[in-house]
């Protein structure tokens, strides 16, 4: 992938702000030193361990110390981006930093507390307030919420949140297939969506944070707006706001994470290090490749980093000395991120917008309603001029007029329904009163009358339903009201001018400081030394200055070396983990997959770029799958799966046998017997089963005998087992998990996908609990 081009007219740098949280209770209790200082006016973060040490200074667009309030952070950082999103730009706000430094506090805060609510709830309020004061446009707002947990994308708003979703690419844009989105009409709606998703997010207590986010979350608000242009046509703009709360980078020794927690930590660090590589590549002029594809997070943030989005990064840090390495690392990456150039652009009249679909559907429903009522109900807002031409009215009038007209129509339809009832009642009575009419004829007329009445009622109900649908859809399309417009406009202008004023003030302070230091330099240069002694003093001062710089650079080099060392350690951990995984997979392949089948699978496997994984194309049409399916149809057979599992269910742990060997033996026997049955029945061509087992061998006379090597191994295992009289339950559980896990992989690779699904389902319902049960016993 080529690197985003830098420079150009409409390109702009990512805005970077730093926020340092206050000392935590534990840090105060442990009497930790505060090593972070901030100069808010200069936008500087100063890190100094002791007064003897040369301070490390970093400069950013904005810096916020422990006293910063949520409202100011929102107004200065997030508000400008939301304004842009309403104009049709894409915007991203993301929080980055070490675990426990306040990312979630900054992004969500305490949503119900007016002082402590974070960027997210404030953004919801602002979006709808802005819409309320815009009478020119019609808006449709929707929200989605996902998390990336252990490198898998999960929909936080879906009932099947456990389902992994896939990343896809269309017209150069990366999106998540099948992600749920909800149309929302108010900040309360949006908050409900957010709360629902947050409950589903992975959170865990660690030594560093009681509520540590174990996943990266992305909340996306899509705002589609439609406005009638001077050409009389409606023009659509689509802005997308991504609010990203990243999981924090962590050192496993500090978080004390173990088991699942440690695994999560490794994955979190891995995707964050890919994010850092992307940042480094984008800001290194020599680098021509950006590794977006190395993690799901960077693929999803591709447009926000070096793409067409207005992006703001908030880097969170802690103030205490024992986190200094992590703080410096965060500051370094944040400092690099300042140089990433994006090229934001307004998304005008894109294809496939939901607002266009809504508008078209409403028009269609209205036309249908009109047809029904024979032109009596015209809701399209179009009136016929004297020359017979249609005059299109401005949208806001249509809306107001429509609302009133809809209300009238609802009332009139209700009235008409009552009238129908009355009229038919009258007719019915008339028929019944006719004495000269025969009973048979009367009931025929009454039946006809009933049918007519039903028909008329049906039509009215259909019209009412259509009206209800139109009303429902129109309610989702949001408009501003003129009464709100003025008041809101003033409030917005005030906020804007406040933000601009603050920006100008900071700029002025920075320029003044720059000027001062330039003047000092100039004076120094112009200084005429009156004597040799003065010259000596001057030169000494200069040397001191240069020496300080040299020391700073030296320190910097030392820090960088430490960081590289840490990164290398992390990578080594990752390599070790991958090696373990690969070895386990090889073990399964060697033991359960016949060599020929393995080669065949390898030949057929293709790398799928879009899902970043290997696939077997058209696996459902492979020879054996079709044969198996045919055989199953013939037998209506669950027997294949059942038989296999009944055999495996008989697994029992005996005291004098190696558990794993016994399990594997039973699995192999079960599989072999089933495969042999299948082979006879449908002529399957499997490689002889001796290749599938390391414990058993086929002898010349065709009998299955135990392999002497394996018998010796078994004996050794038995001794080991006797030595450790009581094996810990967890070890047994792991083995049970392994056997069921291996079985699933094996079955998947040997049978049709439907058969595999069935077997896996069965394994989850029956075998797994049984295996766990064995362990508990
Ligand atoms: N600026 C702040 N003012 C007051 N309390 C804060 C601030 N920042 C963070 N905290 C508190 O510190 C704790 C950790 O914060 P938070 O959960 O937001 O960290 P995080 O960076 O999201 O951590 P993780 O990466 O583990 O999810 C919380 O109890 C939070 O309330």
UniProtKB/TrEMBL annotation:
- Region entry Disordered, spans: 707-734
InterPro entries the record matches: Kinesin-like_fam, Kinesin_motor_CS, Kinesin_motor_dom, Kinesin_motor_dom_sf, P-loop_NTPase
Here the segments flagged for biased composition (Basic residues) are 715-734
Example GO molecular function: microtubule motor activity
Q: Name one GO cellular component term.
A: microtubule
Q: Which residues form a coiled coil?
A: 399-581
Name of the protein this chain belongs to = Kinesin-like protein
Identify the species of origin: Stylonychia lemnae
Q: What is this organism's lineage?
A: Eukaryota, Sar, Alveolata, Ciliophora, Intramacronucleata
């Amino acid at each position: 992938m080529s690197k985003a081009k830098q420079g150009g007219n409409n390109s702009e740098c990512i805005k970077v702000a730093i926020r340092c949280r206050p000392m935590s209770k534990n840090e105060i209790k442990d009497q930790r030193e505060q090593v972070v200082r901030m100069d808010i006016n200069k936008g500087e973060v100063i890190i100094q361990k002791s007064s003897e040490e040369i301070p490390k200074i970093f400069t950013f667009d904005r810096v916020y110390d422990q006293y910063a309030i949520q409202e100011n952070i929102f107004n200065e950082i997030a508000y400008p981006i939301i304004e842009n999103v309403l104009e049709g730009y894409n915007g991203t706000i993301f929080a980055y930093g070490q675990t426990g430094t306040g990312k979630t506090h900054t992004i969500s805060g305490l949503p119900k507390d007016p002082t402590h609510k974070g960027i997210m709830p404030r953004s919801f309020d602002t979006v709808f307030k802005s819409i309320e004061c815009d009478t020119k446009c019609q808006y449709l707002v929707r929200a989605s919420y996902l998390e990336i947990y252990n490198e898998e994308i999960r929909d936080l708003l879906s009932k099947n949140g456990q389902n992994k979703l896939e990343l896809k690419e269309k017209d150069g844009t990366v999106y998540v297939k099948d992600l749920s989105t909800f149309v929302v009409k108010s900040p309360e709606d949006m908050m409900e969506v957010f709360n629902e998703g947050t409950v589903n997010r992975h959170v865990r207590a660690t030594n560093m944070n009681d509520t540590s986010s174990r996943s990266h979350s992305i909340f996306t608000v899509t705002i589609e707006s439609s406005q009638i242009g001077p050409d009389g046509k409606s023009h659509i703009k689509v802005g997308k706001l991504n609010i990203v709360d990243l999981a924090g980078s962590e050192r496993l020794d500090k978080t004390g994470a173990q088991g699942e927690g440690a695994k999560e930590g490794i994955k979190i660090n891995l995707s964050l290090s890919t994010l850092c590589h992307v940042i480094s590549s984008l800001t290194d002029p020599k680098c021509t490749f950006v590794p977006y594809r190395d993690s799901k997070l960077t693929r999803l943030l591709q447009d926000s980093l070096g793409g067409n989005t207005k992006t703001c990064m908030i880097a969170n840090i802690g103030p205490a000395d024992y986190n200094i390495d992590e703080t410096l690392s965060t500051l370094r990456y944040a400092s690099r991120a300042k140089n990433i150039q994006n090229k934001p652009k307004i998304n005008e009249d894109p294809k496939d917008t939901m607002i266009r679909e809504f508008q078209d559907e409403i028009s269609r429903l209205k036309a249908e309603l009109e047809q029904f009522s024979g032109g009596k109900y015209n809701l399209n807002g179009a009136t016929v001029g004297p020359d017979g031409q249609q005059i299109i009215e401005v949208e806001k009038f249509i809306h107001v007029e429509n609302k009133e007209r809809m209300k009238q129509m609802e009332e009139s339809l209700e009235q008409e329904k009552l009238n129908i009832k009355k009229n038919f009642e009258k007719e019915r009575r008339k028929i019944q009163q006719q004495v000269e009419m025969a009973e048979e004829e009367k009931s025929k007329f009454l039946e006809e009358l009933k049918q007519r009445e039903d028909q008329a009622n049906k039509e009215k109900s259909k019209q009412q339903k259509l009206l209800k649908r139109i009303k429902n859809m129109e309610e989702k399309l949001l408009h501003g009201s003129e009464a709100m417009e003025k008041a809101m406009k003033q409030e917005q202008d005030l906020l804007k001018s406040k933000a601009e004023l603050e920006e100008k003030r900071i700029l002025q302070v920075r320029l003044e400081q720059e000027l001062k230091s330039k003047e000092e330099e100039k004076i120094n240069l112009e200084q005429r030394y009156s004597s040799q002694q003065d010259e000596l003093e001057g030169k000494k001062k200069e040397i001191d200055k240069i020496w300080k710089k040299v020391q700073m650079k030296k320190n910097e080099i030392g820090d960088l070396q430490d960081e590289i060392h840490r990164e290398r350690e992390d990578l080594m951990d990752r390599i070790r983990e991958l090696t373990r995984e690969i070895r386990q997979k090889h073990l399964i392949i060697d033991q359960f997959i016949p060599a020929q089948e393995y080669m065949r699978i390898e030949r057929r496997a293709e790398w799928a770029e879009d899902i970043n994984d290997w696939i077997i194309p058209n696996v459902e049409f492979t020879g054996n799958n079709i044969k198996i399916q045919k055989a199953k149809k013939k037998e209506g057979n669950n027997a294949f799966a059942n038989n296999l599992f009944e055999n495996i269910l008989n697994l029992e742990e005996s005291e004098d046998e190696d558990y794993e060997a016994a399990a594997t033996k039973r699995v192999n026997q079960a599989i072999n017997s089933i495969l042999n049955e299948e082979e006879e029945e449908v002529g399957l061509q499997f490689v002889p089963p001796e290749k599938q087992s390391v414990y058993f061998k086929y002898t010349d006379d065709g009998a299955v005998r135990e392999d002497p090597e394996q018998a010796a191994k078994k004996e050794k295992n038995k001794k080991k087992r006797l030595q450790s009289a009581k094996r810990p339950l967890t070890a047994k559980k792991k083995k049970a998990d392994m056997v069921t896990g291996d079985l699933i992989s094996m079955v998947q690779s040997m049978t049709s996908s439907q058969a595999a699904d069935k077997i896996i389902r069965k394994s989850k319902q029956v075998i797994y609990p049984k295996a766990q049960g064995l362990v508990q016993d």
